[in-house]
Write a structure and sequence with these properties.
1 helix, six-stranded mixed β-sheet, 1% helix, mainly beta, 414 residues
Length: 414
């Protein structure tokens, strides 16, 4: 009975004292917003949503804060209370929410008085009680294109939305067969012209597309077409924007049904590290020098496999190793990036087994040499041992660690 862990990461985002914030429960990072519609994810299967989990890195509040699940703009059943000034992990292991096709869901965080909260991870499990993983890939954070040249923007299946013009930087190589469906965007600021969003497969347009009409906001979805994916296919999404076009996208999602789930960690720009660095297992490309800030807790038994890395720059004087890490120890699932070498690196041979309660994340062993390495995407696949349980959706991680990245919803394209 496959269960997806939906994880979001975004270490470094501050939630202000006394604020009410809505965040998507998908595989993305989105800055907090007070508008719930801008964070709602659309369910296109029936799920049991469980194990609301968050990791708080800093907490300056003098009063309690509350995180709750949301369903169709109303309170869900899951809730965790974060005491004044407390940090660490918080989880609801008792309550669940039943979702059916068409339900809209997200999370709400109400911050206590006196100070702000920095939350590094947010996650839930989604159990579809079926034989396949029904994973919802979600992108958030918004895309603003200001007047400039006409441009085709490419978007990864998970992570922040941005003005990415190089398709290879945003493509995810699938390592299992899957069916993609229900391409959906939520437009918060209408475009100056009708705008078409598409799936992309192996550098060509896929079968799915949606059109956001001139100046119209709201949700747009392709409920008819699908894309069949086989192992080795390279997948992303795209939108073509005109020279004087401005559009704001709050959520961009697609459903993937297959025999394994892929946890994806990507960014709109090259993320650079120059020392040993810990990375969140999914969502935004969040990095930290402190391991505990990015560790996600598994709530299912699964096997990690097919670790993937897209290296764009490599100025490190020695080789660099990437590991999937378990309970603070490197596993056998690893890739080695020789000095001065770029491109795609994968471990398609080794695996790592996890049980409920294990902590997992990704770790770069920099090798001790000088110089840095830059990358745009990390991923690994997970498949469950048939013992029941749930699938994890880590959703939000907040410290950006040793990297530089333009934040905000307006991105100028020359």
């Amino acid at each position: 009975m496959p269960v997806a862990e939906h994880i979001s990461s975004g270490l470094g985002q501050v939630f202000d004292a006394g604020s009410t914030n809505f965040c998507p429960l998908g595989s993305t990072y989105t800055p907090p917003t007070g508008a719930e519609a801008l964070s709602q994810v659309l369910a296109r299967s029936s799920y049991t949503m469980a194990n609301l989990f968050l990791r708080v890195v800093t907490n300056g509040t003098t009063g309690s804060s509350t995180s709750t699940s949301r369903k169709n703009a109303a309170p869900g059943n899951m809730s965790v209370t974060i005491g004044a000034g407390l940090t660490g992990t918080f989880e609801d292991t008792v309550n669940t929410d039943s979702l059916v096709t068409g339900d809209l869901f997200c999370e709400r965080l109400v911050v206590g008085a006196g100070g702000s909260i920095n939350r590094s991870l947010l996650g839930v499990t989604l159990d579809n009680s079926g034989s396949n993983y029904d994973r919802i890939f979600v992108n958030g954070e918004g895309l603003g294109i200001l007047p400039g040249s006409s441009i085709t923007v490419f978007q990864s299946l998970s992570g922040p939305i941005g003005a990415n013009t190089t398709e290879a930087d945003q493509q995810l190589t699938f390592r299992t067969a899957a069916t993609l469906s229900n391409l959906r965007v939520y437009v918060s600021v209408g475009a100056a012209a009708a705008t078409t969003f598409r799936t992309r497969k192996n550098g060509a347009n896929g079968n799915q597309s949606v059109i956001a009409p001139l100046g119209v906001t709201g949700s747009f979805e392709d409920t008819t077409n699908t894309d069949s994916v086989v192992a080795g296919d390279e997948i992303c999404m795209s939108v073509v924007l005109g020279a004087a076009e401005t559009i704001q996208i709050a959520v961009w999602q697609v459903k993937s049904a297959g025999a394994a789930a892929q946890l994806v960690n990507s960014d709109t720009t090259t993320v650079t590290i120059s020392s040993d660095t810990h990375v969140a297992p999914a969502g935004n490309m969040s990095t930290s020098l402190t391991e505990s800030q990015v560790q996600m807790k598994s709530r299912t038994t699964f096997t990690g496999k097919e670790l993937y890395l897209n290296v764009k720059t490599h100025g490190a004087s020695s080789g660099v190793n990437l590991f999937l890490r378990k309970n603070g120890v490197n596993t056998a699932l690893a890739v080695n990036i020789p000095a001065s070498t770029t491109g795609v690196f994968e471990d398609t041979s080794n695996t790592a087994d996890f049980v409920s309660g294990d902590l997992f994340h990704l770790f770069f062993d920099h090798g001790g040499g000088a110089g840095s390495i830059g990358f745009t995407m990390l991923s690994f696949a997970s498949s469950e041992t048939p013992v029941g349980g749930g699938r994890w959706y880590p959703t939000q991680m907040l410290n950006r660690g040793p990297r530089s990245r333009a934040m905000g919803r307006g991105l100028r394209v020359p």
